[in-house]
Amino acid sequence: MSRKVIITVAPTGSIPTRKDNPNLPITAEEVAQETKRAYEAGACVVHLHARNPDTGEPTSDLEVFRAYLDAVRDACPIITQITTGGGATTLGLKAEDRLRPVEELQPDSASLNAGSMNFGRKLFPNTPDMMEAYAKRMKELGVMPEFEAYDLSMVQNVDYWIRRAGILDPPYQFSFVMGVMGGIPPTFKNLLALKESLPEGYTWQAIGIGRHQIPMGTMGVLLGGNLRVGFEDNVYLSKGVLAKSNAELVEKAARIIRELGLELATTEEARETLPLLNTA
């Protein structure tokens, strides 16, 4: 039996606008329909940021997150994940405000950024105290943290502040984000180093920014990991060609996975593979 690969779709993010791609979903209905199409194309996890339905600007509004999650859950049985980092650089949110949607809405999973960094020209603060507090609270809530690592040092952060401290038992789920200015450059050697920094039994995915989305994602699959696609990280289907939908990016990733002789994981299989804390 061939290995099953998990595709995550990130349909909105906090940086792209409709000037970048007019097909960017903004309202809860649009995000739910985009997610459903991506799910039907092979995605089994959705990573959500919230947007003001009137202006399209990033927002931390709890009710917008609630509307997104309700609409997505009504549309399809995909695994839900929301950000705890999206408002840090765009909105300057405090640590407790970044976590509030997770506490109130309890998705299947939430991102947990594994260290502070320069994110472009802005500071992206994720101190050890924040990491510890987020991990403890997510454990209490039964929400799986997905550790976002933008460099090798962040893998060490998780090992030291979370695993050795006994806050959360391994195995963990990691995202290796490559191509952000201030983070690790998107090269195959760097992705191999990130992958080899993880103990056996951990699950992970590759996230390439911009034109690196498909190359880094493909390399991630070849190395035994998974991948994320979607407008949050990249709005182009190919050079100079805007994607018509997030589903087009999922379909492209799915084709590559099948051409490599591998299979797409179903949502049910992903739930068995990922270290979800609430499997009910």
Structure description:
With 280 residues, the protein is α/β, with parallel strands linked by helices. It has one domain (4-273): Aldolase class I (TIM Barrel, Alpha-Beta Barrel). It is 39% helix and 19% strand. It is built from ten helices and 14 strands. The chain has helices spanning 28-41, 62-75, 86-90, 95-105, 128-141, 152-163, 188-196, 213-222, 246-259, 267-273; strands at residues 4-5, 7-9, 45-48, 79-82, 109-113, 117-119, 122-124, 144-149, 173-178, 203-208, 226-229, 236-238, 241-242, 263-264. The strands form four sheets. Strands 2-3-4-5-8-9-10-11 form an eight-stranded parallel beta barrel, surrounded by eight helices. Strand 3 (45-48), helix 2 and strand 4 (79-82) form a beta-alpha-beta unit. Helix 4 (95-105) runs parallel beside helix 5 (128-141). The longest helix has 14 residues, at 28-41. The radius of gyration is 17 Å and the shape is globular. The mean pLDDT is 96.
The proportion of residues forming helix, as a percent range, comes to 25-40%
List the secondary-structure elements in sequence, H or E: EEHEHEHHEEEHEHEHEHEEEHEH
- Major sheet details: 8 strands, parallel, barrel
**pLDDT average, as an integer?**
96
Rg, alpha carbons: 17 Å
**Number of distinct beta strands:** 14
Low-pLDDT ranges: none
Structural class: alpha/beta
Q: Record the strand order, biggest sheet.
A: 2-3-4-5-8-9-10-11
> What is the CATH superfamily?
Aldolase class I
- Percent range for β-strand residues: 15-25%
Q: How many distinct helices?
A: 10
Q: CATH fold name, please? A: TIM Barrel
Write down the CATH class.
Alpha Beta
Tally of domains: 1
Distance between the termini: 27 Å
User: Per the principal axes of the C-alpha atoms, what is the gross shape?
Assistant: globular
The CATH architecture: Alpha-Beta Barrel
